Amino acid sequence: MTHPVSEHPAVLVQVLGPTGVGKSRLALFLAEKFNAEIISADSMQVYKDFDIGTDKLPPYNRQGIPHHLIDVVKDCSQFNAARFMETAFTAAEDIRKRGKLPLVCGGTALYLRTLIRGVFPQSPRRRVERHVLQRLVARQGLGLLWRRLQQVDPEYGATVSPKDGVRIIRALEIYYNHGAPPSRVFQQTRTLFQSYQFIRIGLTMERSRLYERIEARVERMLQRGLLDEVSRLRRRYPPHCPPFQALGYREIGAYLDGECDWDETVERIKCHSRQFAKRQLTWFRREKDIQWFSADNQEQVSDWLQVRLDELVHG
Question: What's the pTM value of the predicted model, to 2 decimals?
Answer without folding.
Answer: 0.82
